[in-house]
Design goal:
The protein has 13 helices and 6 strands. The protein is α+β, with helices and mostly antiparallel strands. It has a domain at 141-378. Keywords: Plasmid.
């Protein structure tokens, strides 16, 4: 606040009271405009007009990134104005990945590059962080989950074409999932149901044993218990021909077999358009799996306990399916023990391993595309 000194010196005659004047004037002011001192100086074009803040936390991945580019799969031409080694690798990696990711109608998934510390943050809740020993990981993201069902009409149409056709379809789906994306199939749904109601025994077929367990652990009246008996649940949630052979409980299921490539191609020539396309898609998936042999991009990955799957493929619309999913998501929500990632794939560092890893990733994406096509035909 400024005070006028005249108000504090009343003894001076009027007109002769002292007043404040400045005896200093900045030479830049001169007689120019009042805002002249704010004029910015001219800056040479050689002076950078922008800057980026970088940190010293990429040292440990620099050698990895150099090895990746030296391996000859990633292209430096796909990198534009990177902020560091990690950003350069991410740009090149996704330039390679994105054109190969299939457009899917059933499966939801994505990829993320994360460092060891970020992966450890996700896994600390399970005590698995010590299993991480790579500086960089390619994570498979599962951002959400939709529920589809095969339905009894489609199931019966497949069985009518060949008694083993539905079993073949689900066997190929399971084989593809084991090398690519986690999908909640009838096998998974039955396993989760058994954890709640059958003392973790998904192969339980004896109603008396189930009834005894349910009475001891859940109580309820006879009508409630009857609803959870294997003879009631299994035909609706997971018939034998939707399950792996080791989970079969019906005597007649011993004759089920996975149909050959030749048989599937023969069935693909059916006059029924849907059946023909479905069998052709199954034959393509079988061939894609055969070409991959025993290789898998996720073979050495760290499981991350995902909250979601890439999709739920139920046998039919059922209250049992809703109950299983409700229990699963309620537990995940209450405990917080789940992530948005399926797994973390360690990024290879040696030339031969790098080239093999990219080959495995390309194969996995082809499997995902063929898998999604099958699921699109057999479910809605």
């Amino acid at each position: 606040m400024l005070f006028d000194p005249r108000s504090t010196v009343p003894d001076f005659p009027a007109g002769h009271q002292p007043a404040w004047t400045s005896h200093r004037q900045h030479p830049a002011a001169g007689r120019g405009p009042a805002h002249g001192f704010l004029t910015l100086p001219a800056v040479a074009r050689s002076v950078p007009a922008a800057a980026r803040v970088t940190f010293c936390d990429e040292v440990e991945i620099t050698d990895l990134v150099i090895a990746q580019f030296d391996a000859g799969v990633l292209r430096a031409s796909d990198v534009s104005d990177p902020t560091g080694a990690g950003d350069a690798f991410a740009q090149a990696m996704f330039a390679w990945l994105n054109p190969r990711i299939p457009h899917c109608q059933r499966l939801q998934f994505g990829f993320a590059l994360i460092d060891q510390a970020a992966a450890a943050d996700q896994l600390t809740q399970f005590g698995w962080e010590d299993a991480l020993n790579s500086p960089l990981y390619l994570a498979i993201e599962l951002p959400g989950e939709q529920v589809f069902s095969i339905g009894t009409a489609r199931a019966q149409a497949l069985r009518a074409a060949d008694p083993s056709l539905l079993f073949t379809a689900m066997s190929l789906v399971d084989a593809a999932c084991s090398r690519s994306l986690f999908v909640r199939t009838p096998d998974v749904l039955l396993d989760e149901f058994a954890r709640w109601h059958w003392d973790y025994d998904a192969t339980l077929a004896d109603d008396d044993s189930a009834r005894e367990f349910l009475k001891e652990n859940w109580g309820g009246d006879d009508a409630d218990i009857e609803r959870y008996l294997p003879s009631v649940v299994r035909p609706e949630l997971a018939p034998d021909d939707t399950l792996p052979r080791h989970s079969h409980v019906q005597a007649g299921s011993s004759s089920l077999r996975v149909l050959s490539q030749r048989t599937l191609r023969a069935l693909a020539r059916s006059d029924d358009a849907w059946l023909g396309e479905t069998c052709a898609a199954l034959a393509d998936l079988r061939l894609t799996l055969a070409r991959a042999r025993d290789r898998s991009a996720i073979a050495g990955a760290q499981w991350a306990e995902p909250a979601y799957s890439a999709a739920t493929i139920a046998y039919c619309e059922s209250n049992y399916v809703s109950e299983v999913l409700d229990n699963h998501f309620e537990c995940a929500s209450n405990s917080g023990e789940a992530t948005m990632f399926q797994c973390f794939i360690p990024i290879a560092t040696q030339r031969q391993a790098i080239r093999q890893q990219f080959g495995d990733l390309a194969s996995m994406l082809q499997i995902i595309g063929a898998l999604d096509r099958v699921l699109t035909f057999i479910s809605s």
